[in-house]
Write a structure and sequence with these properties.
Two copies of one chain form a homodimer. By secondary structure, chain A is mainly α. The first copy, chain A, folds into two domains: 30-80, Arc Repressor Mutant, subunit A (Orthogonal Bundle); 88-216, Tetracycline Repressor, domain 2 (Orthogonal Bundle). The first copy, chain A, is built from ten helices and no strands. Chain A binds a DNA duplex (30 and 30 nucleotides) through residues 1-2, 26-33, 35, 37-38, 60-62, 70-74, 76-77, 81-82, 140.
DNA sequence: CGGAACAACTTACTCAGAGTAAGTATTACC
DNA sequence: GGTAATACTTACTCTGAGTAAGTTGTTCCG
């Protein structure tokens, strides 16, 4: 389909000089006046997000470039190839999750209620960034598993630190912190994937179920 | 008949590889005698696994076909495109994991020791199928997240059934079985990914750490 | 026994998208 | 005003997925 290539261009820089068409027409070559980039890394990534939300996880870099109002080499200059775009967006999503999480549990002591807040915040951010989540966890790149790890690390390491401190202050072995953190993030990862695709359980209820597993464990007595 | 000279060329002697001269001679066209396929679905998938182990998760379908001693359209006829190859291999890996798991916990009652056996079996199969694991969890296809779900489902649903029965027999709510199953599988998924890439903790020790989380939960007292 | 029909392939293509080399317009500097 | 630097675009190459058309041997029927 070539339609996607020409989709986002509103006007093809019409030669009629009817007026100052300030639309997101593609920049002309040449060094700009301000000495600054017109479309910086931030804006490219914003455009990438928009394109992903619109076209799903299979958007091409070309489409992202068009959405940003530039051409492919500019995307390469600002952020890099497909893998690096995905990595950058991974970090964005991880940061977004971490902000929501810390906002949700700020000041609270570690306990079951805090755990539920943590889980709900996670689920809600994923739900609000569905296409982005699918993009960074799948996409079309070669290194997906490594990027999954990359994304996970951004969530897991802060969590591991919290866990390690907490365990230490309770006089318990802190060596479990890292595997536990990856475990919890992995749990959230797959449950989120299942949830946004095949379940309509409300987030708080799902969080309660997960909290029951994580807080009390499987043991019945 | 114009090209009697090129008839005898066994293969194109792949220019890039200097590997094993195993190169199975490609079949000539024509209906075979037995009326059966010479290279069936099973053999194609075997070849795919071999190619993945040799070339890593980025093998092309072409390379898989060559490894199988056939050409691309045969691969398409037997198993399908890249996504379907990956799905089929996902099921293979999931079955392999499930066999190991059931062999490990057969007959044992559900308890902490059984949980550890379950986890160790999982980790060991993943470690023994490292490249395959990376292929099915990453690969290069469009639908990776959905295939991840596909792979996970093959492990999660049997587990969910076990959990549901166990919860019911203990007079506890069985509705948590499905989210818990996805949670446990997701935990194993990401921990495995982290483990085979960045950790050298022995499998039994890692399994113990995870078991501590899953069995007793985070609660300290 | 001699075709027509068919089955199982291979060859050779199309198509899309990632990544890059070369060209062009604009500004800055001396 | 001319030269260098800069910020782009155009236009390419290259790889790999997926497919259409051709080729060779087998079977079935008269």
């Amino acid at each position: 389909m070539n339609a996607s290539a020409m989709k986002a261009s509103p006007t093809k820089a019409s030669p009629t000089k009817a007026g100052p068409v300030k639309v997101t027409t593609r920049r002309r070559p040449g060094r700009p006046a301000g000495g600054q980039h017109v479309v910086n890394r931030q804006l490219v990534l914003d455009a990438a997000e928009r394109a992903i939300r619109r076209d799903g996880p299979t958007v091409s870099l070309e489409a992202i470039a068009v959405e940003a109002g530039v051409t492919k080499p500019v995307v390469y200059a600002r952020v890099g190839g497909r893998a690096e775009v995905a990595n950058a967006l991974s970090e964005r999503l991880a940061d977004r999750i971490m902000s929501a999480v810390f906002a949700a549990i700020q000041g609270k002591p570690i306990g079951r209620a805090t755990l539920v807040s943590f889980l709900v915040a996670n689920l809600e951010v994923v739900a609000a960034n569905r296409e982005l989540f699918l993009y960074v966890t799948g996409g079309t790149s070669d290194d997906t598993p490594l990027r999954t790890l990359h994304l996970a690390r951004h969530s897991a390491l802060p969590l591991a630190e919290v866990l390690a401190n907490w365990r230490s202050s309770n006089a318990r072995d802190a060596a479990v912190a890292i595997p536990w953190a990856y475990g919890v993030i992995g749990m959230l990862h797959l449950v989120s994937l299942w949830w946004i695709n095949e379940s309509d359980t409300p987030a708080p209820q799902l969080a309660e179920q997960l909290a029951e597993l994580l807080w009390s464990g499987l043991a019945t007595e």
